[in-house]
Design a protein that fits this description.
homodimer; alpha/beta; TIM Barrel; 12 strands; 15% strand
């Protein structure tokens, strides 16, 4: 508990908008066909329930917000919707949900399926799941349903509470949402899928999107699709993954990178990538030159990154897990971040950790002041919920968002 | 958050073993065939996810333990087991699970079933669910699986982690538990069912049992069945529900009871009782004398309680929700509690709340010192996990408990 509360205080000291708690609902067992490499290297296993950390970190902070991955096939929507409403109440509206459709057969097996559904079907299920939770969050209780009328003996006006019903191929349920309206009702919606279906889903549902790197094409495509879905430019914030290794000087930062790399375990990173892609990278000779590998897809991935072997890919991934990596003094780091923001039309960054807690302590102490000096970073938190802080408008979703269509009419 | 943290600090100041967070996975809609009475009177609705409160209260305390209701059909076992392990880690082993098999059709509908399974089938499902979570908690990771070997690059020894498999009519899953062993592994198991199946379940699985009142017959029956299941007298703690209204004098306490009763809403309590029993009590004239009611079961329930009308039953239930109620000065209260402990062979009490937080503040300030003066109450917390504090032995379950059968052999 002390670890997480100290981390939360560090991030709030640095005026971070939020902390993002990733999750994975199974073990990475594509690499070698078993979870041994993931277990040995501690690659996202063990992985405790990230939702249990939100109250811990919220208790130690006032403004820091919390984005948490929730994997859709993993928990039924009725219980999940209540959990998020409860956290939104407890934190006074500082909660976001990173919608993940699942990508590991091991997670599906844990949840009782023989294997996961196909990629397109998972997005179909996800869209249906969103409808269920939107109905519960937006449509079950009217704003003024709770009367708190002691004298009249009325806690809630039953006429202003509505049973939600959903009948589809994937979800069948009927019930009154168990939480009264929370500050944001629907938590801020994050999404990170880069596939065609992922982009379409993000353009429709997401308020914040994570992209893996500073990718101008992907950013432009997301913005175009969101506009086509009737949403405004300012309705979608796009954050790139970046791993920052900073020190007083470029030389000291480079030395730190060399030290980190000496501890890194490329096979663990390859187990991660195998889980993401479904391709067992242990089939390849880690030290063979790319041109001798049997897979054109892998040859092309390596050449796109300017790498020569699968082992080099593992080494690259083992710092920041695939994020853009920037190493240097505060000036060097901020120069690079500024360039990425401009060239890729980004709204900000999702900082991957390297070594906890020092990577965030150093960012707060060295990079944040330089960002502030250049007018690129806030000097105080805005008041209000996460949605108010991020978007500078109301706590509730805009009327153009699909969730708004489920609001109860008065 | 402040409400819950203040409450936790009050309870820890009073050396309470724990706080019990009840839950209900649906609305009470048997009374009148709709949830209107429950909503109007705020009868367990809204009801936020109680698991989100454990980290909040744990962050404000050091010794206080947490028992939380988890309703079995409501969350798949793989995710549920991880949530409990995560909370056991976060709290250094201060977590108990109150196993509830469900009793509301409304909860089943929320979870996607047309209606809940029958009573006996629910216990069959519950026993099967216990096997799944016991396997995950006790059998997936050996005690020394996590090596934390930085120099050798080994976080976990994969040979000491085992995939769990379960194939039954009710649950099919396969997976590695996602949490490393927590201090208690299996959380302390609570149960409260009083039916024949409920008692058999408790005798086999429960370490702590809640009974509704000071009921010597039920207590003796539970102890006999636990002994028949090969468990020792000290393996089972039995707590009775009690609601205490205390003041400096008997007269002041009686005045407080009158004040509380004036605010009580008998119909809300009847909606609660209708949900528990499945009998729609709104069908009866609330003010008709018992002998004129059409139901022999209701006549018998009223006469057993010395009551004349259904409204009186609602009034009785509206203070303490069916718990034994004791009203008076500290001396009067402790005399009564002592008598119940002796005559019913109880290990302690589960205190129902009347008005929060004053009912617990007054208990701590007035009743605890009197209990201590008589040598009936501890003067300091024992060290260790909840299981160590409650039973004065190890953090893990005894070998005679059915969960122990799933332990991985070395």
């Amino acid at each position: 508990m002390a670890h997480w509360q100290d981390l939360a205080r560090t991030l709030e000291r640095g005026l971070f908008d939020g902390v993002f708690l990733a999750d994975v609902a199974g073990v990475y067992d594509v690499y070698g066909g078993n979870p041994n490499t993931a277990l040995r290297t501690g690659m996202q296993v063990p992985v405790n329930d990230p939702f249990t950390l939100v109250p811990v970190m919220a208790a130690a902070t006032e403004h820091l917000c919390f984005g948490v991955t929730g994997t859709i096939p993993y928990e039924p929507p009725f219980a999940f919707a209540r959990k998020l409403s409860s956290l939104d109440h407890l934190t006074d509206g500082r909660v976001a949900w990173n919608v993940v459709t699942g990508y590991l057969d091991s997670a599906a097996r844990g949840a009782g399926q023989a294997k996961q559904e196909g990629h397109d079907t998972r997005y179909e299920i996800a869209a249906d799941y969103m409808d269920v939770v939107y109905k519960l969050w937006e449509g079950s209780w009217e704003d003024d349903a709770v009367a708190y009328d002691k004298a009249g003996g009325v806690f809630t006006d039953p006429a202003r509470v509505h049973e939600v019903a959903h009948e589809s191929e994937w979800f069948q349920m009927r019930g009154v949402h168990l939480s009264e309206p929370s500050p944001q009702r629907t938590p801020v919606i994050f999404q990170a899928g880069a596939s065609a279906q992922g982009q379409a889903f993000a353009a429709r549902h997401a308020e914040c999107v994570f992209v893996g790197g500073a990718l101008p094409g992907l950013v432009a495509s997301l913005r175009e699709q969101a506009a086509a879905a009737g949403r405004a430019r300012e309705d979608l914030k796009i954050f790139s993954m970046a791993a920052v290794i900073v020190a007083e000087t470029d030389e000291a930062a480079e030395a730190k990178l060399r030290d980190y790399t000496a501890w890194a375990q490329p096979e663990g990173a390859l187990a991660l990538m195998s889980g993401w892609t479904g391709v067992d990278l242990s089939r390849f000779d880690l030290d063979a030159r790319a041109e001798h590998l049997e897979s054109e897809a892998i040859q092309s991935a390596l050449s796109g990154l300017g790498l020569h072997t699968v082992r080099e890919w593992g080494e690259r991934l083992s710092i920041g897990g695939g994020a853009e990596v920037v190493v240097g003094s505060p000036t060097t780091v901020v120069d690079q971040l500024e360039e990425w923001v401009e060239t890729a039309d980004l709204d900000g960054f999702n900082l991957a950790y390297t070594v906890l807690p020092e990577c965030f302590e150093e960012f707060v102490d060295l990079v944040v002041p330089e960002l502030q000096r250049r007018g690129r970073y806030k000097k105080a938190y805005a008041e209000g919920t996460m949605r108010e802080k991020l978007f500078g408008r109301g706590a509730r979703l805009e009327g153009t968002h699909p969730a708004a269509g489920w609001r109860a009419s008065d």
